[in-house]
Amino acid sequence: MKPRHDSRPLPIKLDSTSNGEFAPVPLDAVATHARSGAAAAVETAARRLGLSRRDYLVSTLGAAATLAAFDRAFAAAGRSGGRYVLPAEAPFELAAADAAIGGDDFIFDVQLHHVNPKGPWRRRASPSTFRSTPNSACGKTDHIECFSSDALLKEVFFDSDTAMGVLSHVAGGADENPLDFEAAGAMRAAANALDGTERLLLHGRCMPTLAGEVDGMDAQVARFPVTALKTYTQFGPRDGAAGFFLDDDRLLWGTDSIWYGSPQDQIQAFRAFQIAEALHDRHGYPALTPALKRKVFGLNAARVYGLQPDALRRKLRSDGVQRRKAEYLNDPQPSFATYGPRDRAEFLAFRRWHGELP
User: Fold this and answer.
1) Which residue from 6, 17, 19, 4 is spatially nearest to 351, judged by alpha carbons?
2) Which residue intervals of 197-263 are DSSP H helices?
3) Cα(140)–Cα(131) distance, rounded to whole angstroms?
4) In Å, how far are 145, 150, 300 from 291, measured between CA atoms?
5) 129 Cβ contact partners less than 8 Å away, ≥ 6 residues apart
6) Is 89:40 a contact under the CB 8 Å cutoff?
7) pLDDT per position as a tens digit, 239-292
8) What is the Cα–Cα distance from 171 to 357, expressed in whole angstroms?
9) Is the whole model's pTM more than 0.70, yes or no?
10) Residue 144 carries which DSSP code?
11) What is the rounded CA–CA span in Å between residue 175 and residue 221?
12) What CA–CA distances, in Å, run from 118 to 204, 205, 355?
């Protein structure tokens, strides 16, 4: 199975693609109409401004037009749980688009991934491992290279507004983990060497169900520059506690990139999104103010990890990563592609190929 490419992709994803953890849910008529409306809105706006479709889409205008079209379609269908709030001129005026979905927020992603294409885990893995994982059809001869450290640098730091991140492991023991500590440390060092700051922090890993993992936590901390330890535990019973509450001081931003490509569309959508007032009144949800969104994007995590965002942002504005990003943005190449199983047959094939690895 090859992940299918939409021949006319949009900068904000809306399709049936699953991350492989559940069977894809087909788009309903309203969502299908929203996609069609967004595609038409992009074409109309690009023509009006005398831009090619590609040039329009890689600017903030394309994302603004897409979100505005989604908002119109869902509102017309009576789906009133939330809105994408943008000024009417955002699809046509770059300053308006940047004001609505751009920004210089301190975005600190606490859940990033890449894999080591040369690691020992490949000796045990199937040749098809990761084949149907989102972003696996990036065009590399070896599809595992789609998840390499170079891919992480491009997708997360060049194609999105992410400022810092935490490189995290996936479920699996030391011998079968697609990201070993040596490769993780090398990626962290490479990213940090570009700027002299710490763009990338490192998670330790512990699977308590595997022998020796708990005892090995101290060894990880002693040998590697681990800033936190990530554990994989069993889920509780279905009839357990009804739930738990997280207030806006405890929510952290983590996108699971680069399994799904760049997180930029998630960032732009969250900037524009507002919860309906009726839900504020009914459930006591707080308004998604710019201050609250800044906390979720990175300020909450900065507090947890002991970072000083203001001092870091001053350094990051002129560091090596930012200089390379500025060069890249002279001719940006975002894919806007969506990968992964899109129907039940592809989902079942994905699960067969998935085996014990993500």
Assistant:
1) 19
2) 217-223
3) 12
4) 38, 33, 11
5) 122, 144, 353, 354, 355, 357
6) no
7) 444 444 557 888 999 998 877 778 999 999 999 999 998 888 888 888 899 999
8) 7
9) yes
10) G
11) 18
12) 20, 20, 19
